Protein: Putative major pilin subunit
Amino acid sequence: MIKAVRKVMNSKKGFTLVELIVVLAVLGIIAGIAIPRFGNIQEESKRKADIATGAVIGKAAELALANGETDVAVDKLVSKGYLESLPKPQYKADKDFVVTVTGGNVTVTVDNQQVYPDGKNYKKD
Structure:
């Protein structure tokens, strides 16, 4: 029995070149599919982060208005303690959040695209 096992072990020493090439081809195909999807996931996460940050800014502006504040610009919300720090967009990193109050309704935009109260159409140009 032991001799039979040794004989089998000695006859198989490794993978053939064809087997290695097939494995590399399969790994290449998987990488080709996965990498573009990973990039899309990052962009979508940044977009959703901006929408969530816009909601925080919008709620802070609504609280400031309820407390009698008249200027609810983002930098004023920070200086008056409604926000801890000046938020920067992730999806459109070169732009800023802008708060607008119309008829008591608060709107937060980035690059003239609404992120609060409804950011579903917030996209890159």
User: Anything to note?
Assistant: Strands lie at 97-102, 105-110, 113-116. The chain has a mean pLDDT of 87.
